[in-house]
Every structure is written in C-alpha cells, then in structure tokens.
Amino acid sequence: MPKHDVARRKFLAGAAAGAGAVAGAGLVPEVAAQNYGHKEASPGSQANAIAHGAFFNQLEAGMIVAFTERLMPGAEGKPGAREAGVLNYIDLALSGAYADLQDFYRRGLAQLDAYCRTTHHKPFPQLEAAQQDAVIAALEDGKASGFTWPAAQEFFSTIRTHTMEGMFADPIYGGNKDFAGWRLVGFPGAQAVFTPEDMRSKVAFTRALMVGLQTTDQGQKRRS
Predict the structure, then answer these.
(1) What residue ranges do the domains of the chain occupy?
(2) Fewest 10 Å CB contacts: which of 22, 41, 75, 144?
(3) pLDDT recorded at residue 77
(4) How far lies 190's CA from each of 100, 131, 180, 224, in Å?
(5) HEC string of the chain?
(6) How many angstroms separate the CA atoms of 30 and 51, rounded?
(7) From the first residue on, what is the mean pLDDT of each consecutive set of 10 residues in the chain (224 residues)?
(8) CA-to-CA separations, 211 to 32, 182, 188, 192, in angstroms, rounded
(9) What is the predicted pLDDT for the residue at 188?
(10) CA 103, chain centre distance (Å)
(11) Residue 108: strand pairing partners
C-alpha cells in the first residue's frame, strides 16, 4: 500500500479514536429503521455490491464509492470505506436526517464530474489512483476550478466528515459494516456496563461488540 494511503488511513482512524462520540453516538436516528432490510446492489455492479438507491443514482454512487475509498483506502486485512459500506451510510443519511444536503451533494458531484472531465478527460471513478488523489488534493486546497456552490473545500470537508461517520458510527445507521471501523480502532461498541476488571485491564477488549444496546449476536438475529 502506498505511503500516502497508509497516512490517510492513520489520520482518519486516529481522528475517530480520539473522538469517541463519532464511534458510538446516534448520528442519524431517522434512517436507522431504513437500514434493516435495505437490499444490496447485485454483484458486479458499479457500487460493488454496496447497498444504495435511497438517494444516489448509479453514477453518483460510483463517484462516492471511488472518492471515499481514496479517503479511507482498504488494505489486506484492513477494510476501507468500500468494505465498511460508507456509500450505504451516506445514501441513507441523505434520504433521512441529512436530507437538507441533497442539493449540496447533487451540485457538488456534478461540479466534481465536470472538473474531472475537463482536467483529466474522464469521470472520477475511471481515473488512476494518483489522479484521483490529485483531484482530492485540489478540492482540499480550494484549487479545483468550476466550483461555485458548494465550494471545493466545503464539498471535500463534508465528504470527509461523512466518510468518518460511515466508517465509525454505530452499524445501525448503515455503515461500519461487520464492525469494520470499530475493529480497526479497537472500539468495543455501546456496552451497557463495563466491569471493574474491564476498566483496569490493559489488554484488548474481547467481549462481543454491541449495536446500540444489543450484542452482535442479537443484531444478527434482527437482520435475519
């Protein structure tokens, strides 16, 4: 894995570990009920079998998958944004609690697509990784041309924030699939009680992870 990919993963994981509220808080309660039973895309689709369709169309979904994966790239044994279902998290959020950001995303993605086609003559998902990183850097630095509203930096910052939420929020909100983000930073989930032994222990927490106030086993039963 390239050094800049490793650095990016460490930055986002470190930020999440340092902000426990991101990992455990209820960020988008309005979409929680929608997550269960939400169908996944067929294998081989542009979204790579990540559930979407509540808000994004296929083109937009592909852009979000590619963009968030460059922000939080996967590695062997370390799932990234794609495996954690960040697309599904953002998709559901925009159809619920973040509905006021629908125009923001639609216009931002349209401006991103236009910038990529003008600068690199291809849409963002078809660019090489280095080109995608260059585009993201231009957004972050406010140097990407053609952005009016949202501004390039604002658009980048919002997607980065939502990528972190999709990686590390409670899985009940549609992301953090199979507890990928929690396992990455060693977060034990929303445990109802920590015993005195738990508090004194210096070894990794091994009790079953919890979704809200449910154990992982209960969560699996609910989804079945």
Answers:
(1) 3-187, 190-224
(2) 75
(3) 83
(4) 28, 39, 15, 21
(5) CCHHHHHHHHHHHHHHHCCHHHHHCCCCHHHHHHHCCCCCCCCCCCCCCCCCCCCCCHHHHHHHHHHHHHHCCCECCECCHHHHCHHHHHHHHHCCCCHHHHHHHHHHHHHHHHHHHHHCCCCHHHCCHHHHHHHHHHHHCCCCCCCCCCCHHHHHHHHHHHHHHHHHCCHHHCCCHHHHHHHHHCCCECCCCCCHHHHHCCCCCCCCCEECCEEHHHHHHHHC
(6) 18
(7) 60 53 46 39 39 84 97 91 96 96 98 98 97 98 98 98 96 92 80 69 67 50 40
(8) 11, 11, 10, 11
(9) 75
(10) 19
(11) none
Residue 141 CA to residue 152 CA, distance in Å, equals 8
Read off the pTM: 0.73
Token representation of residue 69: 């994966």
∠ CA 66-63-70 to the nearest 5 degrees? 25
Amino acid symbol at 56: F
Tokens of 71: 């922000």
